[in-house]
Design goal:
It is a single chain. The chain has 184 residues and is of the alpha+beta class. It has 4 helices and 4 strands, in the order H-H-H-H-E-E-E-E. Strands 1-2-3-4 form a 4-stranded antiparallel β-sheet, with helices on one face. Strand 2 and strand 3 form a beta hairpin.
């Protein structure tokens, strides 16, 4: 009788363990292991970053070509408020009520590399220009605040001139804005 109880106990214990193991195996089915989850998260993050980069590039090209081929445009529609103020200060150096070059550098040196600011105009340094086309727009690097810097060649097809610009583009709502331009 003692032998039957031990056998019955052993049988019940093995049955319980089998049910528990099968139940865990069933409930884990379809779950991603932690290492696979990390790989998938990285892949998804990279895919999203690549899509954001491509969207920023398309936005930049379209914005330049659309705005510069209209009769008039507002720089502030394409740029951050801070960059628009910076560029306006640069364009107005030495004009009535404008800053001196020294005071301009002092004012903006902590936010921008002032040696790369053009003082004649925004992106295209001439007041009168012809048909504008972006002939090249290549990613130079990604920046911490989810922005991108593109090496951009802007061509004036009418006047047959080109302008090289490194343009920093940052996300803004569902679009982008130009946050800085290095003019060479």
């Amino acid at each position: 009788m003692h032998k039957i109880s031990t056998l019955r106990f052993t049988f019940l214990l093995l049955s319980a363990m089998t049910i528990t193991l099968n139940g865990n195996a069933q409930s884990n089915k379809g779950l991603i292991s932690p290492s696979n989850a990390t790989i998938n998260n990285r892949a998804n993050k990279q895919k999203l970053e690549n899509q954001n980069q491509e969207n920023a590039k398309k936005w930049l090209i379209k914005t330049i070509e659309t705005n510069f081929n209209k009769d008039t445009y507002e720089m502030s529609d394409m740029t951050t408020k801070t960059y628009a103020q910076y560029k306006s200060d640069a364009i107005n150096i030495e004009y009535d009520n404008g800053l001196t070059e020294e005071s301009f550098k002092k004012k903006w040196k902590n936010k921008f590399d002032t040696k790369y600011v053009g003082m004649n105009g925004f992106l295209v340094p001439t007041q009168d220009y012809g048909k504008i086309k972006v002939s090249s727009c290549k990613l130079l690097y990604v920046i911490k605040d989810k922005g991108f810097v593109f090496e951009t060649i802007i061509k004036d097809l009418t006047l047959k001139t080109s302008y090289k610009r490194d343009i920093k583009v940052i996300p803004s709502g569902k679009s982008f804005l130009i946050a800085d331009v290095k003019e060479y």
